[in-house]
């Protein structure tokens, strides 16, 4: 579904990776290894060279906004540009059920300033899912969940992700939780110094 | 009609008495302002006397070339001022270039329009009309453009996450930056809007004061002032719009990425 060949930025790569429909891939590695930069490069948010294609269509063949609706990237720290939560969502038919699935059914009337980091992460995930992307790039989606309900909420988010996989969407997830890839049935990769191991990756040219 | 009463240089020395008195107060009260006060006053005197001599020479020469040259020098100073007033600037030639280009286009358009269509001196570029007019237009456009660009660049640099969040949802670079664009345009337009609102109520505009002092009928001076204010408003608006959208175009790219790497500076 998503094919990445020789993806390279000044700081990472070259990276090769193929994601199939309904497949999950998990990337772990030390901080500063370039995991977030890798996701940014796929989403075309940073300049990069190489080939990234969705179902055989190169990303350059479509306008960048269209690409980002199909290949959705949810950063670890999401951005909020309005005061109220509801201003960040479009009123789609599935919005209520999505919010319910992440345990935030009433969040629409809340104010962004009063959200916890974990709540922001879950709302950002819902926001990205609204565009019905074919590929999800998630940067530590459950890293900042609030202590009292960690396992419960984690289970909610992972159930939602499994549902996406069942709908033949592909998932590339950066995670520090050693057990999470197993729960999602994900192939594991390790990123270090800008290189993704278990794929062909040479040392970056000096 | 009394006509124009000329001042002698001794009159000017006499006029500076109160300023010197302030300098004495500063010494007595140990305000530490004496130096800056004196330096600024001397600098202003030298600048203005030189400008007077240069303008006199240009008016005497009556040459198109010299008039254009003077206009170019004014533009260069205004462009530098815009550049200096920004906390974060576009890198490379875009830094000084964009503000100057926006001013050049807006200022020239409005000045030429006013000279050729409204005031109609003979010849049309007559320096007595062209240079003061161009100077006023530049001065106001400069203030607007520098405020607009400074606001835009600061807002974008601080709001990177907000802009990128919208880009990631599939919005275009223009949609994702809209709140910041609006903020920048508002900042750029504010001084001229305020000037229009307050003009004549608190103080008489400088040009009108000058005309009245030199014996022009106040009603005629008002007409001139109104024309100037309309031109200033128009030129400032065009300059601010041009500079803001030009800068947005530069700090994003055709793949709808935010390119903060094309901004320099920022004292965090």
Mind sketching the topology for me?
The complex is a heterodimer of chains A (206) and B (268).
Chain A lengths: L1 E7 L6 E5 L4 E5 L6 H8 L6 E6 L2 E2 L5 H7 E4 L20 H7 L15 H13 L5 E5 L10 H17 L3 E5 L5 H5 L2 E6 L2 E3 L9
Parallel strand pairs in A: 3-8, 3-9, 6-7, 7-8
Antiparallel strand pairs in A: 1-2, 1-4, 4-5, 9-10
Chain B lengths: L8 H7 L1 H12 L5 H28 L2 H21 L3 E3 L3 H26 L7 H32 L1 H9 L4 H4 L1 H21 L7 H8 L4 H33 L12 E3 L3
Antiparallel strand pairs in B: 1-2
Helix pairs in contact in B: 2-3, 4-5, 4-6, 5-6, 5-11, 6-9, 6-11, 9-11, 10-11
Give an account of the 3D structure.
Chain A: One of its GO terms (molecular function) is ATP hydrolysis activity. Chain A: Residues 2-206 form the ABC transporter domain. Chain A: It holds the Pfam family ABC_tran. Chain A: Keywords: ATP-binding, Nucleotide-binding. Chain A: This is Probable ATP-binding protein. The complex is a heterodimer of chains A (206) and B (268). With 206 residues, chain A is of the alpha/beta class. Chain A has one domain: Rossmann fold (3-Layer(aba) Sandwich). Chain A is built from 6 helices and 10 strands, in the order E-E-E-H-E-E-H-E-H-H-E-H-E-H-E-E. Chain A has a 6-stranded mixed β-sheet, sandwiched between helices. In chain A, strand 1 (2-8) and strand 2 form a beta hairpin. The two termini of chain A are 32 Å apart. Chain B is mainly alpha-helical. Chain B folds into 2 domains: 1-61, no CATH class; 63-265, no CATH class. Chain B is 75% helix and 2% strand. Chain B contains 11 helices and 2 strands. A two-stranded antiparallel sheet of chain B has the order 1-2. The chains are: A alpha/beta (206), B mainly alpha (268).
């Amino acid at each position: 579904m998503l094919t990445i060949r020789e993806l390279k930025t000044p700081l990472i790569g070259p990276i090769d990776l193929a994601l199939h429909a309904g497949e999950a891939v998990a990337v772990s590695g030390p901080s500063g290894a370039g995991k977030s930069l890798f996701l940014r490069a796929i989403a075309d948010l940073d300049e990069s060279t190489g080939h990234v294609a969705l179902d055989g269509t190169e990303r350059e063949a479509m306008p960048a906004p269209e690409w980002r609706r199909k290949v959705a990237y949810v950063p670890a720290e999401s951005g909020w540009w309005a005061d109220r939560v509801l201003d960040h969502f479009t009123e789609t038919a599935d919005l209520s059920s999505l919010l319910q699935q992440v345990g935030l059914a009433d969040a629409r009337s809340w104010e962004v300033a009063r959200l916890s980091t974990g709540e922001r992460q879950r709302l950002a995930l819902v926001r990205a899912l609204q565009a019905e992307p074919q590929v999800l790039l998630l940067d530590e989606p459950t890293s900042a969940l609030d202590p009292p309900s960690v396992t419960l909420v984690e289970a909610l988010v992972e159930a939602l992700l499994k549902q996406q996989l069942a709908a033949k969407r592909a998932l590339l997830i950066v995670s520090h939780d050693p057990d999470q890839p197993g729960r999602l049935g994900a192939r594991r990769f390790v990123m270090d110094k800008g290189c993704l191991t278990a794929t062909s990756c040479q040392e970056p040219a000096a | 009609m009394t006509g124009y009463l000329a001042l002698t240089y001794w009159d000017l020395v006499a006029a500076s008495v109160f300023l010197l008195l302030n300098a004495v107060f500063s010494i007595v009260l140990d305000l530490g302002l004496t130096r800056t006060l004196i330096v600024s006053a001397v600098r202003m005197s030298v600048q203005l006397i030189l400008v007077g001599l240069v303008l006199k020479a240009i008016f005497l020469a009556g040459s198109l070339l010299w008039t254009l040259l003077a206009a170019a020098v004014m533009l260069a100073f205004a462009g530098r001022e815009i550049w200096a007033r920004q906390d974060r600037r576009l890198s490379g030639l875009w830094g000084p270039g964009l503000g100057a280009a926006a001013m050049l286009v807006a200022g020239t358009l409005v000045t030429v329009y006013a000279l050729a269509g409204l005031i109609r001196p003979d010849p049309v570029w007559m320096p007595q009309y062209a240079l003061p007019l161009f100077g006023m237009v530049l001065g106001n456009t400069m203030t607007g453009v520098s405020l607009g660009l400074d606001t835009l660049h600061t807002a974008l640099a601080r709001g990177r996450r907000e802009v990128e969040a919208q880009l990631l949802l599939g919005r275009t670079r223009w949609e994702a930056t809209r709140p910041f664009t609006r903020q920048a345009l508002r900042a750029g337009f504010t001084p001229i809007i305020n000037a229009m609102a307050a003009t004549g109520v608190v103080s008489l505009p400088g040009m009108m004061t000058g005309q009245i002092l030199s014996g022009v009928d106040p009603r005629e001076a008002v007409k001139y002032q109104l024309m100037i204010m309309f031109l200033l408003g128009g030129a400032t608006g065009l300059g601010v719009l041009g500079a803001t959208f030009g800068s947005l175009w530069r700090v994003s790219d055709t793949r709808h990425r935010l390119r903060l790497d094309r901004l320099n500076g920022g004292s965090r």
